[in-house]
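Good morning,

Attaching, inline, the backbone tokens for the sequence recovery test we're adding to the shared suite. The designed sequence is right after.
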């Protein structure tokens, strides 16, 4: 069977046996000639007639051929030449005999069922994992040296790591203590902020902690409604995107009538709320403002929709933006708001109440005074993440007890990030031109805690071209498929995949298939003979069998990290690394606290307060609105606590 009938179609190198045999003959010839030459020289006493020596009393081996023409034949000379011929021929007979003996035995084909193997150093280097820059994806034991494996390409990364397996100390912390670009960190428990923000700030980064439940004033504030570009053609799609995330907080889709109807009117209501507060209060509306507008106990909902229908939004937008905003965009916003209001006014009272109640129920989170304060202003803008003068590190800190409650807000922020930062792509000289100052790393540990994010699943296919690199960590495949379904495309869009010892057989089976199958050659010898023990015949047969490079049960038995009696990791375990297009790597976990450099960086104290990028995001007030004082105290209104764009 020829080499290109199966496998990867790579031609195998020619055998070295022929070249080795030629080299063997050359060595034998030199030895035989040297023997004949030196002994002949001794026989004639190194006479001057023999010619010059090569070194002291040593002659060139081939000189014997010249001497036999000029010296007298003798019995001693014939004996020397005969011995040299034996030296040249005898080893050849021995070698050829051994080759004939062993070549007659069946060998089998060692790649017919598969060529899976663990990557060697040359392959790992070719995969670009030994270059010493980028995110950390694990380690590789090179004899007695543990080499760090890092990936710096634009491609995305996924890790399967069960809880308490060492993913934080082995993947997340080493990466955050070395990544030079901007980053968004999904930081459940706040551990990453505590151990990495100090070093990142020391490197000149702007570090911000967005903790919606913070009551100390150390957290940054972020108002998603400030990302709506009211003064241009993007206002309507921006408002619709936010409306979609509000009425579908868990990413299950707008499946029922009430959610669809709520989405239909909420976009227009958001734009009306933004214009209303800019005109009447001189402030930027917040999600709390929107929630209280929809749940105002002092007026009927129909009054709000009548206001939306009859308000001259074109004139108000003219007052706010003047000629900076084109007239068509003003009219489009006016029609959009009026259509939403008319649609609601055409509904029966019970139906209208049900639709509004659906929207109001999904905004209950923003009526929490603490969350309201965290969303009362904007200390940064999404575009700052990649275009600020310094790299920006944004930590989304969520306490485990608040994950379910705060999920809608975190999803909303990430939705805006993915939409806003993947809008425009520049080209120059036939190639993509980087339209950003800093690459952005999305470090998403416990990724599935956010629920299904369709925008994220779609964006994975193209966001690398915009300088955004995703680092996704999930506990197992079942958890991922539970959120995104069995036909999910998250895993297939990740160029590099890693795995610690899995706890579920489904994950182990997939990992086993990913390692591939190898061919195992089995030799069987059958011996026949008499009862007296005299052998009459021995038969040797060869068969090829396939075997997974790593079986599912072997995957589940990967040595994990060793822990002390307090449950603290003391020694790293093994792991699997799968770079696309290369053989799998049998790797070793890394532990940041065993590296003096990482340990020193992690000891730099975290900042007491989050940085703010006020100079980049402060909006120019309209002619009739006062400048916003971000340092003013919060005011309490009679109908409820409404937080404006001031600090708490």
């Amino acid at each position: 069977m020829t080499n290109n009938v199966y496998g990867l179609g790579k031609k195998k190198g020619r055998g070295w046996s022929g070249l080795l045999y030629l080299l063997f003959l050359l060595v034998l010839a030199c030895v035989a000639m040297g023997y004949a030459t030196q002994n002949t020289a001794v026989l004639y006493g190194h006479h001057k007639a023999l010619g010059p020596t090569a070194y002291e009393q040593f002659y060139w081996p081939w000189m014997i051929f010249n001497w036999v023409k000029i010296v007298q034949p003798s019995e001693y000379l014939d004996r020397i030449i005969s011995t040299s011929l034996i030296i040249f021929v005898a080893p050849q007979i021995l070698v050829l005999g051994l080759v004939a003996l062993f070549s007659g035995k069946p060998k089998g084909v060692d790649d017919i069922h598969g060529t899976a193997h663990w990557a060697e150093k040359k392959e790992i280097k070719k995969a670009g994992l030994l270059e010493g820059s980028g995110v950390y994806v694990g380690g590789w034991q090179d004899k007695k040296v543990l080499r760090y494996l890092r990936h710096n390409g634009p491609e995305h990364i996924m890790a399967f790591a069960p809880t308490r397996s060492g993913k934080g100390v082995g993947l997340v912390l080493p990466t955050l203590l070395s990544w030079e670009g901007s980053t968004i960190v999904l930081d459940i428990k706040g551990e990453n902020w505590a151990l990495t923000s100090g070093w990142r700030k020391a490197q000149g980064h702007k570090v911000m902690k967005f903790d919606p439940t913070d009551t100390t004033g150390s957290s940054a504030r972020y108002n998603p409604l400030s990302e709506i570009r009211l003064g241009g053609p993007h206002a309507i799609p921006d408002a619709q995107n936010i409306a979609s995330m509000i009425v579908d907080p868990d990413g299950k889709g707008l499946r029922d009538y009430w959610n669809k109807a709520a989405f239909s009117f909420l976009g227009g209501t958001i734009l009306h709320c933004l214009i209303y507060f800019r005109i009447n209060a001189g402030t930027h509306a917040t999600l709390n403002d929107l929630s209280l507008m929809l749940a105002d106990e002092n007026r009927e909902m129909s009054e709000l929709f009548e206001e939306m229908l009859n308000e001259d939004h074109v004139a108000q937008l003219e007052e706010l933006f003047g000629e900076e905003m084109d007239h068509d965009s003003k009219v489009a916003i006016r029609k959009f708001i009026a259509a939403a209001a008319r649609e609601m006014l055409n509904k029966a009272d019970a139906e209208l109440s049900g639709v509004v109640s659906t929207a109001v129920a999904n905004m209950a989170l923003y009526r929490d005074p603490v969350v309201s304060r965290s969303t009362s202003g904007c200390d940064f803008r999404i575009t700052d993440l990649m275009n600020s003068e310094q790299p920006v590190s944004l930590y989304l800190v969520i306490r485990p007890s608040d994950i379910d409650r705060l999920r809608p807000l975190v999803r909303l922020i990430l939705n805006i990030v993915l939409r806003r930062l993947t809008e425009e792509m520049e080209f120059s000289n036939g190639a993509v031109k980087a339209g950003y100052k800093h690459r952005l790393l999305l470090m998403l540990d416990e990724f599935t805690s956010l629920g299904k994010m369709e925008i994220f699943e779609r964006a994975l296919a193209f966001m690398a071209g915009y300088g955004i690199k995703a680092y996704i960590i999930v506990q197992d495949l079942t958890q991922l498929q539970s959120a995104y379904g069995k036909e999910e495309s998250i895993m297939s869009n990740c160029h590099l995949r890693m795995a610690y010892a899995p706890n579920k057989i489904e994950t182990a089976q997939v990992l086993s298939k990913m390692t591939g199958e190898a061919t195992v050659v089995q030799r069987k010898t059958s011996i026949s003979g008499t009862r007296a023990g005299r052998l009459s015949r021995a038969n040797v047969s060869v068969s090829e069998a396939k075997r997974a490079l790593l079986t599912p049960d072997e995957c589940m038995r990967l040595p994990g990290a060793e822990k002390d009696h307090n449950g603290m990791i003391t020694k790293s375990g093994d792991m699997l690394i799968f770079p696309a297009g290369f053989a799998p790597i049998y790797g070793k976990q890394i532990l940041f606290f065993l590296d003096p450099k990482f340990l020193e960086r992690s000891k730099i104290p975290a900042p007491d307060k989050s940085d703010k990028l006020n100079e980049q995001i402060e909006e120019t007030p309209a002619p009739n609105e006062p400048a916003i004082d971000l340092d003013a105290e919060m005011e309490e209104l009679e109908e409820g606590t409404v937080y404006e764009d001031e600090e708490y």
